[in-house]
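User: Sequence recovery, please. Input:
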């Protein structure tokens, strides 16, 4: 079996993917028609062209349009099912999915618990029909007031263990350091809820240090740790998982090109790296594509691919018995995959 076939067929785990940012054009078109929302395009082909990343303002425009089309809990169940079907098609057997519930509560009046119930219906359907599952990371949007962050923390504490696996922090890093929501994070930590914060993407090492100080158990992105050798040493010693999203980093201008992405350097430093897609259709990628591009661009062999796949499984925020079963399932598939001797 060649490396590309190995990547496509082995079971995988994804830790950094946004539910709203995973909606494919066909699903968005269905939502828009269902809710009578006008979009800049009226066919799937036109929508796919509109989706293609141009610049950050356009990215925000697409994201806002997507959010406007999610009006009911039935819509949430639809996008949950569509997302999980897409993951299953890639052999992604477990995903930890970032979801900004407060947006839908504030703009469309959808109660948080009803949102979670809808996504849990999608999750249970996928577990029964497709053999894949997900956990939800409910994030605080960085630009909201600290009081709004506390509201999200309370929601997550209440729903923790019912499909919800962590409290997150998303949105633009500039001007909104993790410390802004320190009270929310402290409340969640005291209740035993893990924190998974975005940091070290568009902002540098100080953002990462801030996330670590709040107790983040993983780092969403984290690639700019390389600007601070002492921070690199700390991350290596603590083996804090980095949720690296190369194509996203290129599109958002964090790095100039895929070939110049610091992924090989992160690995060379002995850091704990996982590979992820972030907002896949908006960046014209998938998790499988990220593995294929990384292997082709950087000459990764099967051992490095196996390392990245297993890293993600070990960093999953699952109960110990379920995480062990996940790791064993992936390792068994890896061991059973024939090696190409050519």
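Assistant: Recovered sequence (342 residues):
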């Amino acid at each position: 079996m060649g490396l590309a076939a190995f990547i496509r067929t082995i079971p995988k785990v994804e830790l950094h993917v946004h539910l709203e940012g995973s909606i494919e054009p066909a699903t968005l078109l269905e939502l828009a028609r269902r809710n009578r929302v006008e979009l800049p395009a009226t066919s799937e082909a036109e929508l796919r062209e509109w989706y293609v990343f141009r610049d950050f303002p356009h990215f925000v425009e697409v994201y806002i349009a997507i959010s406007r089309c999610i009006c009911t809990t039935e819509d949430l169940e639809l996008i949950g099912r569509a997302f999980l079907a897409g993951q299953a098609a890639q052999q992604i057997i477990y995903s930890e999915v970032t979801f900004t519930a407060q947006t839908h509560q504030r703009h469309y009046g959808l109660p948080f618990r009803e949102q979670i119930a809808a996504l849990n219906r999608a999750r249970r359907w996928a577990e029964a029909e497709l053999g894949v599952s997900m956990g939800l990371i409910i994030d605080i949007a960085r630009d909201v007031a600290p009081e709004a962050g506390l509201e999200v923390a309370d929601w997550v504490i209440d729903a923790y263990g019912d499909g919800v696996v962590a409290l997150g922090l998303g949105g633009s890093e500039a001007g909104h350091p993790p410390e802004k929501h320190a009270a929310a994070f402290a409340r969640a930590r005291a209740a035993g809820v893990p924190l998974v914060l975005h940091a070290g993407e568009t902002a540098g090492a100080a953002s990462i240090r801030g996330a670590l100080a709040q107790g983040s158990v993983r780092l969403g992105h984290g690639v700019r740790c390389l600007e601070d050798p002492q921070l690199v040493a700390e991350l290596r010693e603590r083996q804090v998982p980095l949720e690296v999203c190369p194509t996203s980093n290129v599109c958002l201008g964090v790095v100039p090109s895929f070939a110049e992405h610091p992924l090989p350097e992160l690995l060379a430093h002995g850091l704990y790296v996982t590979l992820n897609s972030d907002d896949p259709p908006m960046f014209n990628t998938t998790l499988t594509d990220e593995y294929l591009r990384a292997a082709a661009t950087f000459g990764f062999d099967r051992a490095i691919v196996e390392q990245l796949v297993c890293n993600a499984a070990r960093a999953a925020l699952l109960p110990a018995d379920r995480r062990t079963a996940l790791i064993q399932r992936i390792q068994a598939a890896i061991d059973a995959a024939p090696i190409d001797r050519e």
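Strands lie at 12-18, 92-99, 133-141, 164-170, 195-199, 216-221, 242-244, 273-275.
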